[in-house]
Amino acid sequence: LKKRHDFICGRSAYLYHGGLEAVIKQLKYHDKKYYSRFLAKITYDELKDYIEIVNPDFLVPVPVHFLRKFKRGYNQAYEISAELSHLSGIKTLKLLKRIRYTKPQNKLKQKQRLSNLKSSISVDDRCFDTYQSIHEKQELEVIKKQKLKVMIVDDIYTTGTTMDACANAFKEFGIEDVYFITVATGN
């Protein structure tokens, strides 16, 4: 029986192996923030048609907890998403936040991943202030009913647990149309 995901659809540009795996690891763990531009470019080149078909209102990076961001110095998903914004013309908004610290997903088995991320991501209402100013201070409830379409951005897709946690947070908030793109997918 296949697991039903909380997002509508998603695409990864490449497989996570070889040189691409090395570049992503350099970005995430070795302070090579400038690799985000390269990763965004190759992802956009590969997924441009998909992005145009979905036509999301916003790109939304997978959030990292502030402690992990402090340690790393940046959120690699945000850096990739910001570069994708330059290429696509679609605004990146940090609409999600980590509300509790979690273990790195790459160290966990499938069942552990699910419990690790449970209730760890939520919509950051403060970010809708930015959206409201764009749309002349419309009420938040009106914004929810506008049928927003968001595209989550991350570096790697493995089991879908992270994307499901993000999509679930959006659905609890009233945003149903959730898609994703990643640079790579695991084996």
- Order of helical and strand elements: EHHEHHEHEHHEHE
List the quaternary state of the chains. single chain
- Largest beta-sheet characterization: 4 strands, parallel
Q: Termini separation (Å)?
A: 19 Å
The largest sheet has its strands arranged as 1-6-5-2
Beta-strand proportion: 15-25%
Mean pLDDT: 84
Helical content band? 40-55%
The total strand number stands at 6
Would you identify the regions where 5 or more consecutive residues have pLDDT less than 50? none
Number of helices: 8
Kindly name the structural category. Answer: alpha/beta
Report the principal-axis shape: globular
Please compute the radius of gyration using only Cα atoms. Answer: 16 Å
